[in-house]
Amino acid sequence: MFGYYTALLAAMTWCFLGIAMLISTLARSTDVAQGAAFLTWLVMLLFLDLILLGVMIQEHAPPEVAVGIALFNPLQSFRTAALMLFDPQLIVLGPAAYVIFDMFGTLGYQIFALAWPALIGTVCAIWGFSLFRRGDLL
């Protein structure tokens, strides 16, 4: 459990470092970079909110779509995987847990929760590095 949680933290660290690399490459000033980082964090928190999921389900969005949008957020993936360590059936999440287990299974979701943030971080870091290389080193 300790090793998996450490790996989850490392994956989230890599994700946020990649996003930070991209933001710092795109921003021309410190203020713009700080504002973009804060806005990115707020957007991630918005999709972490269970009220958003409740509204989507109340408006008759299929549960798979609602949970898929939520799990697209690496912060939500981390949160759910961390909850899974202490509550293997994800009783705290209610019916959304059934959708997650139907889509991934327990082991599949644990792998997804490690791979998805690492993938986002890697893509953002490569994109940011390529923009930096083209713009500053010419």
List keywords for this structure.
138 residues; globular; mainly alpha
Could you explain the architecture of this structure?
By secondary structure, this protein is an all-alpha fold. The chain has seven helices and no strands. Helix 1 packs across helix 2 (30-46), helix 1 packs antiparallel against helix 5 and helix 5 (74-86) packs antiparallel against helix 7. The chain is globular, with a radius of gyration of 17 Å. The model has no long low-confidence stretch (mean pLDDT 84).
SSE arrangement:
Blueprint: H1 2-26, H2 30-46, H3 50-58, H4 63-72, H5 74-86, H6 96-103, H7 106-136
Please summarize what this structure is.
With 138 residues, the chain is an all-alpha fold. It has helices at residues 2-26, 30-46, 50-58, 63-72, 74-86, 96-103, 106-136.
Distance from N terminus to C terminus (CA atoms, Å) equals 47 Å
Q: Count all strands and give the number.
A: 0
C-alpha geometry: globular
Question: pLDDT below 50 for ≥5 consecutive residues: which ranges?
Answer: none
| SSE ordering | HHHHHHH
Which percent range describes the beta-strand content? under 5%
Number of helices: 7
Secondary structure: helix percent: over 70%
Mean pLDDT: 84
**Gyration radius, in Å:** 17 Å
